[in-house]
Amino acid sequence: MAESIEKNIEIINRALMKVAIVHEFLTRFGGAEQVLKNISELFPSAPIYVLLADESIVKKYFCNRDVRPSALQKLPTWLRNRYNWLAVFMPSIVETWDLSEYDLVISSSSAFSKGVVVRTNTVHISYCHAPMRYAWDYRNQYLDDLSVGFVRRKLAKALLHYFRIWDRSASDRVDFFIANSKATQNKIKKYYQRESELIYPPVSTLGAVDVNISLNKFFLVVSQLTPYKRIDLAITTFNRSNLKLIIIGDGPDKKRLEKMASSNIEILGWQSDQDVAKYFRDCYAYLMPGEEDFGISAIEAMTYGKPVLAYGQGGATETVLSGINGELFSEQKPEILADGLRRLMNNYANYSPLVIRKWSEKFSKDRFKNSLEEYINSKVTSK
């Protein structure tokens, strides 16, 4: 009886809570935005604060939500499209958002959103996709990819140093961290000196019904085209073979990658959800050449029963089981990736699409929502 009363009080208290959600950008719909959408479905009346938003993304995925872009949204389109130029202003912008009326703030963060300032008695839970990559573990690679002169490189290093100091300080404003993988948990511990709860992100299963061995001999990549994703490694490797590679995605690295690609490689740009589902269904196997903090697209491929070849660092070590649902390769070198392709193809008859699909179910949306709801309830009542 007492437990029933306490449960009812907990439900009533939660219903009375005012909740806000904070995210960096709604300018594309990737893995982080899938997480955001599922969080928003748990709290449909909660406003979503973002630095910048693309109207088409909001209409398609968040049409019934109260999305509140920052003052950056008023800038000219050409400047909004180059929002990396505006990064220096973003820490101060998120700090000026007035969240004083909310009892619970949930930040979906890989950079700035965890830095919001809230009241002392407001609970701030941050779902961390990764600590700010370019300020921490990708710092040197980011500087190398800039391809700028000595003076501008020095300025960039100073800016990253500022971001690193701010990011470490901002992490102290979070009451509770949630990590999207054990790899991210380790980074949160190393860079922020904080413990975190592990809740794997939700994976879409749009159209993932028929699971069968594909006779199509094309490999698939679905990714944002940025240098750290290492799509260039995949292209270099496939340039040396007759294997077909299809790349779906867009980003700042697209033009360089198109110049690299030979005739057996197609770079299609962003595609509709329905078309992406078709490519997942028809592909031979999925390829993930970069180090991912989790790697949602690889799990999406598994929902179609497809094996995955992934770089054996980061989140892939938690999701790809060699010989069962794919293979791992140990170094980001063309000859090592080529060896991984050989191993996957030699073992292809031993992969069971049904087993692969079953493994992907542990990353379902229902599991994510239930775990997140349970965790939030425990922390809101404990503070």
Structure, explained:
With 383 residues, the chain is of the alpha/beta class. It has a 7-stranded parallel β-sheet, with helices on both faces. The protein has a 6-stranded parallel β-sheet with strand order 12-11-10-13-14-15, sandwiched between helices. It is 42% helix and 16% strand. It has 2 domains: 220 residues, Rossmann fold; 146 residues, Rossmann fold (3-Layer(aba) Sandwich). The longest helix has 22 residues. The protein contains 16 helices and 15 strands.
Shape type = globular
Count of DSSP H/I helices: 16
Task: Supply the CATH architecture of the largest domain.
Answer: 3-Layer(aba) Sandwich
Quaternary organisation of the protein chains: single chain
As a whole number of angstroms, the C-alpha radius of gyration is 21 Å
What's this entry about, in short?
The protein has 2 domains: 220 residues, Rossmann fold (3-Layer(aba) Sandwich), CATH 3.40.50; 146 residues, 3-Layer(aba) Sandwich (Rossmann fold), CATH 3.40.50.2000. Strand 11, helix 10 and strand 12 form a beta-alpha-beta unit. Strands 5-3-1-6-7-8-9 form a 7-stranded parallel sheet, sandwiched between helices. The protein has a 6-stranded parallel sheet with strand order 12-11-10-13-14-15, sandwiched between helices. Strands 2-4 form a two-stranded parallel sheet.
